[in-house]
Amino acid sequence: MRFSTVFGATVASLVLPSSVFAGGHTFKARHHHEIAKRAAGDIVEKRGGIFDNARLTYYDVGLGACGKSNVPSDFIVALNTPQFGSGYPGPHCFEMITITYNGKSTQAQIMDECPGCPFGGLDLSRGLFDFFASEDLGVLSATWEFVN
């Protein structure tokens, strides 16, 4: 009986830490989709393809749906699924857009898809989001348009 108690305790001490650490690897994966689900905004598409009051969030970049890897300092976006389209790569992959928020404008490239973003919404790389505002804000309402 003593052997089974010692054996059971030994097995538990080996298995428990590995199961605790195994769950920690998935926390940041696609964290931006959870941020994007926080609140819905009204998107108004004006003539000329300008999206006003668009919901902008940020995410941790990496290998995107367009098939290229990026780093946080890249000015890239993940486009919402309805606008991203189907196929590989998506029809808007590598297109440039202009984003305007609070009097500041810059261009960014579409490199990923954001399934959790509403129509008109974008997920921005951390570097791009930081260009406009502090990450503490979490969500911005901005204007963007495709560059022709």
TrEMBL record:
Keyword Cytoplasm: no
InterPro entries in the record: Expansin_CellWall, RlpA-like_sf
Keyword Signal listed: yes
Keywords recorded for this protein, A-Z: Signal
UniProt signal peptide: 1-22
Name of protein: RlpA-like protein double-psi beta-barrel domain-containing protein
